[in-house]
Structure formats: structure tokens, C-alpha cells
Design brief:
homodimer; about 180 residues; alpha/beta; 5-stranded mixed sheet; 4 helices; about 25% strand; binds cGAMP; Stimulator of interferon genes protein (chains A, B); 2',3'-cyclic GMP-AMP binding (chains A, B); endoplasmic reticulum (chains A, B)
Chain lengths: ~180, ~180
């Protein structure tokens, strides 16, 4: 089960390392005078998981109501023989209908990108149906792992969504994000 | 099959991105006056894969004949909403019995670290026997993928080894690496 390994790898190789340090990283960013993240309930990594696994590299190209602001301070860790490997998070402003900005640390779940590309490589023998099933399994497995992780509590928020209707609304993605942010604010 | 997904993810999310750029990155490093990598046949990413999946974060702590020299220039890519994500490779000197240094770009296969940690987390229901089987499957799957990858040809070398005897020889790891390097020099 491909998704099972990807969920564990995402947790072990990334979330378990970075989530415990996230609030401090945001605090450092704010201390430098960047007072955009006012609401501490949103001091989390918001992880986008579109069911289609079509992951944009630049979110603002997906929806003009999303604007990249800056990266948080780098997290630097010696890992598996790579010295000073760098882990980064990006801060975005997401504009609502009243053009007010809502700030959050946001990124897509990179393993879904692997699922997408596997479904395009004939050698992988992995169909579009397999991919949808594995995307859901990835989410369920990751949710179970994180529900049981004390180190990562309250430092993340999953935004899983069915983006099959996304093409019809140029602001589909910002609306999905805002709905989740407003539940926290 | 956990290893199947990890191998594909390692190729799609890492090797396919970095290996085509590796020779240029080494060239830039040499142009700055660092003339250590003289033999172009060794201008490859040497990927260590110990069967036990016990992956050290600092290789020199494993074997005093291995010395970290420097990192190559960063590879910076916008990926899945993370802006300017950084990919790094580390350059090492590996000393032989005659104390001569042999230089190479070296790291461990990070997904094996995930397999190791999964075998330690009870929630993953993944035994030490599963882990050994999956480590071998990871290697076989990755080898198949890379044998078929035109973009990555000649830019990598797998160093898979059974490290069950490693504890008895403080220079086990450097000898394993040197055997592979000497086949290329
Ligand atoms: N040696 C090494 N150096 C790297 O820079 C690197 N980047 C990725 N990988 C390995 O390639 C594969 C595919 O990566 P992907 O990004 O899809 O998944 C990654 C990704 O979803 C997330 N992650 C890891 N590092 C970062 C990061 N810096 N920023 C965002 N996400 C990250 O957590 C997953 C597991 O990471 P690793 O367990 O380090 O191993 C990965 C993985 O096996 C790397 N391996």
C-alpha cells in the first residue's frame, strides 16, 4: 500500500521534525517586526490535500486571492549524511471577498505529488483509480498517526478537498482555505 | 508494499529533480577553486543503503576515516507551495589505509530512515523482518526505475551493503565506500 509508506515517511521525515519547532519559528518571525500572524490559533502548518493530487508549485498561480509573503526562518538539521539540510515554510496572505488578508503558513502535501507522477509513469503500473484510493488512504493514515503524536499536537491543520469542481471557480482554493481559517480564528 | 511507494517517491520527489543538475553543481564548486573532485567518473551521488536501515546523521561519527568537507551549491526549487525549497548535497573525503583522501558526494538513502523509524513505532505494525524485506524491495524497485531513467543516467551509484558485521570494524563503512569508488576511478 503505497500511501501507507508515504504517510509514515511524511510524518517521520518531516512533520515530526518541523512541527514541534513551528511555533518558535513563527515567534521569531513576528519578533522581527512582521506582525501579520496575530491570531495564535492559526499558528499552524496548513497542509493542502487536493483529492486529484494535482499540486501547484506556486499557489498564487492557482488563485489570484493567494499571495506569497515570505518564508519563515530556515530550520537546519544534519540528516542522513546531508549536512545542514534546510526545511522551510512559506507564509501567505489569503484574501476574502472583502479584500481583507488572512495570514497563514501554507503548503501542499508533497507526497500527493509523488502519487500523481506515479500515475503518469507506465513503469509504476498505477492507475488514476489507484491514485484516488491512495490519496484517501494517505489522509486517513496520516490523520491516525498525528492523532497519536504528542509532539505534533495543535501545530497542524489538514485541508483535504475535492477539487473536481475547482476549474469553474478561479477563487475555489482561497475559499477552501478561508473556510478552514475562519473555523480557527 | 511500503518500499514500492518509498522508491517511487525518492525518484520522483528527489533523484529526478537533483541528479540531472548534479554535474553542473559539482562543476560550479570546482570552478570556485575547490579542485578536490579530479576524477569525473566519480561525479555522482553515492547513495548509501545499509540493509539494517540504521542511518547515521553524521557519517564521520560512524567512521573516523570519513571527513565532511563542504556542501555543494544549493539547488533551489519552488515545490508544492514551499517557495525556494533547498536541496543540498555534501562532499566528503574518505581516507584509505595509506591515508590518501578520495573525494565523493555522499549521503544515505533517506527513505531507509523512514523504514527504520516505522519499525520502532508500534502504531505502524511493522516488524524488523518486514523492514529487512522492504529495504531489499526498496533497492530493487529503485534500481529498476533508475535503469529506465534517461535523465538520471550516470549520475548516481548505489552502495548497498550488509552492515551486520560493521560493529567489529571501526573502518567498515569507509572500506565499503572505497571499494565502490575504486571501481569507478
Ligand atoms: N537526502 C534528501 N535530501 C533532500 O533534500 C530530500 N528531499 C526529499 N527527499 C526524499 O525524497 C523522497 C521524496 O520527497 P518528498 O518531498 O516527495 O517527500 C518528503 C516531503 O513530503 C516531506 N519533506 C521532507 N523535507 C521537506 C522539506 N524541506 N520541505 C517540505 N517537505 C519536506 O517529507 C517527505 C519525506 O522526506 P524524506 O524522508 O526526507 O525523504 C524524501 C522522500 O523519500 C530528500 N532526501
Amino acid at each position: 500500500n503505497v500511501a501507507h509508506g508515504l504517510a509514515w515517511s511524511f510524518y517521520i521525515g518531516y512533520l515530526k521534525l518541523v512541527l514541534p519547532r513551528l511555533k518558535d519559528s513563527i515567534q521569531t518571525f513576528c519578533d522581527k517586526g512582521n506582525f501579520v500572524l496575530k491570531c495564535k490559533d492559526t499558528w499552524k502548518l496548513h497542509i493542502l490535500m487536493p483529492l486529484s493530487c494535482t499540486i501547484p508549485d506556486k499557489l498564487e498561480e492557482e488563485d489570484s486571492n493567494i499571495e506569497f509573503l515570505d518564508n519563515l526562518p530556515d530550520i537546519v538539521i544534519d540528516r542522513a549524511g546531508v549536512r545542514r539540510r534546510v526545511y522551510k515554510h512559506s507564509l501567505y496572505a489569503v484574501y476574502d471577498d472583502a479584500k481583507r488578508p488572512h495570514h497563514c503558513v501554507l503548503e501542499c502535501a508533497t507526497p500527493l505529488l509523488s502519487l500523481y507522477e506515479m500515475s503518469k509513469e507506465s513503469l509504476a503500473e498505477f492507475s488514476t483509480e489507484d491514485r484516488l484510493e491512495q490519496a484517501k488512504l494517505f489522509y486517513r493514515t496520516l490523520k491516525d498517526i498525528l492523532d497519536n503524536s504528542r509532539d505534533c499536537r495543535n501545530s497542524y491543520r489538514f485541508i483535504m478537498y475535492d477539487d473536481s469542481e475547482a476549474a469553474e471557480d478561479p477563487h475555489f482554493l482561497s475559499k477552501v482555505i478561508l473556510k478552514h481559517l475562519q473555523q480557527q480564528e
